[in-house]
Amino acid sequence: MRGHGSLFGTYVAGESLLHRTPLWVKGLAVLLLSTSVLVVNTLALTVVAGGLVVVGYLMGARLAPIHLWRPLVPVWPMLVILGGYQLIANGPEPALQVVGNIATCLLAARLLTLTTEGQRLLDGLVALAVPFRRVGADPERFGLTLALMTRSLPYLVGSVADVRDAAKARGLERNPRALVIPVVIGAVAYAHQTGEALAARGLGEPGA
């Protein structure tokens, strides 16, 4: 089933400079770059930031060019609509800025996931939650929640796609029941299996 993916994206194994760079350095770089292009909001900075991201893909991470455009495929209709609106309302430069800023931020975040294993990302996010232990937060449960989310959401999205394809093959793509009922049943079964797996490990229970 196509749902068995990762919410963080597919990690590409490698020994490049970016693969070896500590997670906190890469995360800080993505944060600073994204914040800069959105706050300063000039076309010159957008071009420079976009160029740095492209260099990061091709030289820093030694990734194939296909990884540059693949993250933009799902969002290209939104980029076209936003760019078209800005072009009509404000002219070509603001249109390029808006589209360029979004694409740069998206590609920068994607580069982080492509060069960092999913478990390392989860561990890094859990580490960020440790200081909040003083106010009652539980970093371990936070990590468990993230792990479940990163596995469950892609599974459910893939389940919807599989059910839609199956219904289309039977000529039932316009039948709501043929789409909704199998997805609901599959989601309930998946949740039940996950609950049983957690219970078998003594997790997910009060006080665990």
Summary, kept brief:
It is a multi-pass membrane protein. The protein has 2 domains: 17-114, no CATH class; 138-200, no CATH class.
Write the H/E string, N to C: HHHHHHHHH
Mean pLDDT: 80
Q: Which percent range describes the beta-strand content?
A: under 5%
**Can you tell me the overall shape?**
globular
Class per helix and strand makeup: mainly alpha
Oligomer: single chain
Q: How many distinct domains?
A: 2
How many helical stretches? 9
Keywords for this structure?
CbiQ family ECF transporter T component, mainly alpha, 2 domains, disordered N terminus, transmembrane helix, transmembrane, globular
Describe this structure in words.
The chain has helices spanning 17-20, 23-40, 43-60, 66-69, 76-90, 92-114, 118-129, 139-169, 176-200. The protein folds into 2 domains: 17-114, no CATH class; 138-200, no CATH class. It is built from 9 helices and no strands. The chain is mainly α. Helix 5 (76-90) runs antiparallel to helix 6. Mean pLDDT is 80; it is low at 1-5. The two termini are 32 Å apart.
Fold topology:
Layout: H1 17-20, H2 23-40, H3 43-60, H4 66-69, H5 76-90, H6 92-114, H7 118-129, H8 139-169, H9 176-200
Helix pairs in contact: 2-6, 3-6, 5-6, 7-8, 8-9
Membrane topology: Multi-pass membrane protein
Transmembrane segments: 28-59, 71-88
Main location: membrane
